[in-house]
Amino acid sequence: MNGKLWVKMFLLSVFGFCAVQGQEESKKPATDKEKGTEKEWRAVHLFAPWHNEMPMFKRVIAERLAPMGINTLVIEVNYKFAFKSHPELREPGNSFTKEDARELVELCRKHSIRLIPLFNCFGHQSWAKTTFPLLAKYPELDETPNIPKDNSSIYCRSWCPLHPKTNEIVFSLIQELIEAFEADAFHIGMDEVFLIASEQCPRCKGKNPAEIYAKAINDFHKLLVDEKKLIMLMWGDRLIDKKKIDYGGEYECSANGTAPAIDLIPKDIIICDWHYEMRNEYPSLPYFQEKGFRVLATPWKNLKATKSFIEYARKNKTDKMLGILFTTWVGAQDMCPALLGEGDQSKFDKMAVEAATTLKEGMKELIAEKK
Question: What beta strand segments (E) does 168-315 contain?
Fold first, then answer.
């Protein structure tokens, strides 16, 4: 073989290898650094607007959230979306559409805000006397089918995670939201699941609540992380054992056997550790980090408690502490006016005003820390 031919073949083999290697690299899921999770999260959770509330909601993002330094918006959609895979599961009203989602995607990109959809899974399938669409349309998926229809004896309903039809339906809803929001992360909710392993459910009766809860989480993880290559978030209260970390009551910590699930689920899930009352310590923050999870400290409308929570998070920060997720828990029709601060403020929803004030002052606290 002459020298020129040898060189030519050598170069072709090198470039061919590099091309294949490049293709293989492009198939790998983006690292957390590439996805921006190494940046401190200054996040807020808001309920999705109805379609007719979109102009006001967009103003909140552009005129309030972006200027105050918010870099992540978790938008809770649930059944408000105009689902096409299951139109029967649209909540009555002027549905939030795929086109609305795309408008928010573009607006958030313009302002360097990460947009993360949330669909509340497992629990919170009813509120007061209203049962939400999934269990209203498919009562066979109800974990407690014998509970009175007015929900008078419960906090809120749960779906049965072991019914084969549950994941089939819910996964299709989630995939619609992922596509509509062009999401690189997804929040599955999973808070305040009180009805689990019920004697009324032929599939769950007698089973270990922690194993059932972990299975549900792991099913979502397989879809979201393994298959879709997304980052997965969830609320943390059911993973806190009341016997070990007692926040009082049974809302912020678990007394119904779900807590051991913490050792049965992947550690790459981001835990949103919510606590709303004034305390000197919030021991679940270091607990989740010690367990290997990344954490977002998650306050609400009590400004004094929020400042205490932020300070405790600072003092107990490791590389697992991502930042703060402010919650609001008020619909867009009330939350948007409170954030914009326009109109007759005496008519504003009180809870919305408190949440808006806490968000603004809490963000000032975070910004001041960086100066």
Answer: 185-189, 231-235, 270-274, 294-298
Q: Is residue 30 assigned to a domain?
A: no
Q: Cα angle vertex 154, ends 151, 156, to 5°?
A: 80
- The pLDDT mean for the chain works out to 91
**Domain span at residue 155?**
37-370
Considering its fold, how many domains does the chain have in total?
A: 1
pLDDT tens readout for residues 251-270: 999 999 999 999 999 999 99
pLDDT at site 4: 47
Whether 20 is in a domain gets the answer: no
What single letter denotes the amino acid at residue 168?
E
- The top-scoring range by mean pLDDT among 7-11, 16-20, 237-241 is 237-241
Please indicate, yes or no, if residue 9 is contained in any of the structural domains: no
pTM score of the predicted model: 0.90
In a domain, 28, yes or no: no
**Closest residue by Cα to residue 325 from 42, 25, 79, 120:** 42
Alpha-carbon distances of 271 from 108, 144, 174, 262, rounded to whole Å: 23, 27, 19, 11
Per-residue pLDDT reduced to its tens digit, 167-189: 999 999 999 999 999 999 999 99
Task: Concatenate the DSSP letters of all residues of 154-185 into one string.
Answer: -S---B-TTSHHHHHHHHHHHHHHHHHHT-SE
User: Which CATH number is 228's domain given?
Assistant: 3.20.20.80
CA–CA distance, 126 with 122 (Å, rounded to integer) = 11
Whole-number Å distance between alpha carbons of 267 and 122: 20
